[in-house]
Amino acid sequence: MSRVVAGRNTHAYDGELVVFHIGMQINRWWRPDLWMPAFLAMPRMLRELSQDPESGFLGYELLMGAGGPYVVQYWSSIEKLYAYASEPTAEHRPAWSRFNKAARSAPGAVGIWHETFQVERAESIYVSTKPMGLPKATRMVPITRNHDRAQARFADGRTSASTPIPSSPG
User: For 28-43, what is each residue's pLDDT tens digit?
Assistant: First the structure.
């Protein structure tokens, strides 16, 4: 189990950053034969990606939404995200094909959604939390006195994808 990191921290990352949200909307809970295969496919994909440092996959957070589970993923580039999605030998393509076949057999029973964000700049704060989100996927660093406020961190671009935050406390 992860330990709580005391104090005020933010993330630092140098390079392109992509945030990808993907989830399922379970519209017929009483039909696990339709939604369970898609539900079980995601852990296999996350494990595959986590074990491949060349994939461009930086990390993820599993969450539960109003209609079902979803995952926030962090990627080093949009090209690597799309390359994984279309790779025929990776876990995603066969899972996507199985989902489409099941969805045609019972339209509306299960929905899949995703949103992709290419991040130019990001601001974050984590106060006495376990590692999660951007700092877990990138690098956690203490917030310095000059960047005590969200506006300052965002305006300065110190948490942007192109300028890392210095790791020394202020």
Answer: 999 999 899 999 999 9
Task: List the domains of the chain with CATH numbers.
Answer: 1-170 (3.30.70.100)
Positive or negative, the CA dihedral 44, 92, 122, 113 is negative
Residue pair 60/137 in contact by the 8 Å Cβ criterion: yes
Query: CA geometry: angle at 163 spanning 74 and 49, to 5°?
Result: 20
Which residues are CB-neighbours of 115 under 8 A, at least 6 positions away?
Answer: 20, 21
Q: pTM, whole model, 2 decimals?
A: 0.85
How long, in residues, is the chain? 170
Give the residue among 111, 119, 102, 100 at the shortest CA–CA distance from 159: 119
Ordered DSSP codes for 46-74: HHHHHT-GGG-EEEEEEEE-SSSEEEEEE
